Structure formats: structure tokens, C-alpha cells
């Protein structure tokens, strides 16, 4: 059985880690390199860096931030934000990323996923999908972009299938409705996407405690991503792994 992964996420803006609710009201949460080193030391399996302002501000992801993090990090690193072309991805991979994550640019031009996969391999190509429910209580979700400010009308499940068909080797799935709320992951969304695609799905958006991670993994996620509970010092990846292991979930100890 494959072990399930715990992945802290560093949302970065202007070279600093930030955290908000539904991508808004961002507050400072520390230095990226310092946070990265701490998370690896406390049991993280991987790390994700998302430049939350790169797409909205029309600028490239800061490769120097990636290089600074890689200098202190030994675990796999995924980087996203502001990647619009193969050359953008190459710059980040050369700076130290192991995988690149694309969202808005792939929605605008799905062929980008194919070009990334052909150049770097599916294992390096992550599609980040931000999904919002079409209506409360309705099991249907649409893709949102530009930090949740733009509703695309695209069906999130259909887009997940297309993204994988075009070359994405992993899905970073964020529930816009749950993000930063600490109310738990959208397990219904996770199950729907996990059953629709053959690649790993990373659950994102809403974690407050270990039970939420257990729920997400039981819903079909292959990995769980969290930010606030780590940034605020409430727990560590190692502490969460102990709870997951007690619940019968295989984790890397």
C-alpha cells in the first residue's frame, strides 16, 4: 500500500508567507525558507509553494524564493503561480522545484499541460484546480481562477479528466468554499474527482485538525495539504502522522 503524504503549503506574496480565508485578507506568516526548514524537520513529506499574487499581478514567480527554499530543503518541492509558458516552468525547475503547478494558464490554454508533460514528464506536471460549488448543497462544482475572483463556468470534474488526458500527473484540488475556513475538506468533491481520474489527488482547503485529514484520505485523496494549522504552530506533520497511523492509514514515519 502506498503511504499517504502530508504536505504543508506556503502561500507566498512579495517573498513572504501569507495566509487568508478564501484567498482574501492575507496576513503575514513568516519567511519561506525558515518555514520550509521547520516543516521538513517536523515530518513533512513534501512542500508546496504557491505565489498567490503572481497571476493576478501578471508577473513571473520569484525564482529566487524557490532557490532560497531549495537551499534548506531535501524533500520534494512543488511550485506554482504565474507559470504561463514552458520557459517559466523551466526557470522554476532550474531554481530547485521538483514539480510545477499550473492553474489559470492551463484553463486559458489547456495545451500548456501537454507541452509541460512532453518537456518535463507527467511526474513534474501538476494541475491545480480551484473548485467552487455551483450552489450550496449541490454536488456540482465549477472551476474558479484568479485567486477565486473569476468563475469560469467549467465543470471541475470534467476539467480534471481533461487535464489528466492532456498530461497532468497529479491534481492539487482546492475547495474555494472551504479554503481557510477550518471547517474541513470538501470530501464530496474529493471523492468525485478521485473516482474520475487515475492520478494522485492532493486535498486542499479547510483543515483544522487531524480528523479532517483522516476524512479526506478516506474520501479518496492520496495526500493532504494544509497551511494554517502549521503556520499557527497548532500541530506538526509528525503529530498528524501519529493520528493517521492510529486510524489505520499508512504514512511515512
Question: What order do the helices and strands come in, and which of them pair?
Answer:
Blueprint: E1 5-13, E2 16-21, E3 24-30, H1 32-41, E4 47-51, H2 54-57, H3 63-70, E5 77-80, H4 86-95, E6 99-102, H5 104-108, H6 111-120, E7 125-133, E8 141-145, E9 150-155, H7 156-165, E10 170-175, H8 187-196, E11 201-204, H9 210-218, E12 223-226, H10 228-231, H11 237-246
Parallel strand pairs: 1-4, 1-12, 4-5, 5-6, 6-7, 7-10, 10-11, 11-12
Antiparallel strand pairs: 1-2, 2-3, 7-8, 8-9
Helix pairs in contact: 1-3, 9-11
- Count of structural domains: 1
The CATH class assignment is Alpha Beta
Structural class estimated from helices and strands:
alpha/beta
Strand content: 25-35%
- In round numbers, the mean pLDDT is 91
Question: Portion of residues in helices?
Answer: 25-40%
Give Rg in angstroms. Answer: 16 Å
Largest β sheet strand count, sense and barrel closure: 8 strands, parallel, barrel
N-end to C-end Cα span: 14 Å
> Helix segment count?
11
Output the CATH homologous superfamily: Aldolase class I
What overall geometry do the principal axes of the alpha carbons give? globular
Strand order of the largest sheet: 1-4-5-6-7-10-11-12
Low-confidence stretches: none
- Please trace the helix and strand order, writing H or E for each element: EEEHEHHEHEHHEEEHEHEHEHH
Strand tally is 12
Level-2 CATH architecture: Alpha-Beta Barrel
Amino acid at each position: 500500500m502506498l503511504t499517504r503524504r502530508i504536505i504543508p503549503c506556503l502561500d507566498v506574496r512579495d517573498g513572504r508567507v501569507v495566509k487568508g480565508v478564501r484567498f482574501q485578507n492575507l496576513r503575514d506568516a513568516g519567511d519561506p525558507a525558515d518555514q520550509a526548514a521547520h516543516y521538513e524537520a517536523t515530518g513533512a513529506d513534501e512542500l508546496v509553494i504557491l505565489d498567490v499574487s503572481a497571476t493576478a499581478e501578471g508577473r513571473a514567480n520569484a525564482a529566487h524564493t524557490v532557490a532560497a527554499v531549495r537551499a534548506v530543503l531535501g524533500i520534494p518541492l512543488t511550485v506554482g503561480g504565474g507559470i504561463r509558458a514552458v520557459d517559466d516552468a523551466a526557470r522554476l525547475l532550474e531554481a530547485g522545484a521538483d514539480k510545477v503547478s499550473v492553474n489559470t494558464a492551463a484553463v486559458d490554454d489547456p495545451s500548456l499541460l501537454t507541452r509541460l508533460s512532453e518537456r518535463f514528464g507527467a511526474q513534474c506536471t501538476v494541475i491545480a484546480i480551484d473548485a467552487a460549488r455551483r450552489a450550496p448543497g449541490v454536488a456540482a462544482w465549477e472551476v474558479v481562477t484568479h485567486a477565486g475572483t473569476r468563475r469560469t463556468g467549467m465543470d471541475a470534474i470534467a476539467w480534471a479528466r481533461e487535464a489528466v488526458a492532456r498530461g497532468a500527473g497529479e491534481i492539487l484540488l482546492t475547495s474555494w468554499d472551504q479554503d481557510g475556513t477550518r471547517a474541513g475538506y470538501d470530501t464530496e468533491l474529493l471523492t468525485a474527482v478521485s473516482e474520475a481520474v487515475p492520478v494522485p489527488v492532493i486535498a486542499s482547503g479547510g483543515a483544522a485538525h487531524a480528523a479532517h485529514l483522516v476524512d479526506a484520505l478516506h474520501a479518496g485523496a492520496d495526500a493532504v495539504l494544509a497551511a494554517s494549522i502549521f503556520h499557527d504552530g497548532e500541530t506538526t506533520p509528525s503529530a498528524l502522522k501519529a493520528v493517521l497511523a492510529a486510524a489505520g492509514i499508512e504514512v511515512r514515519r
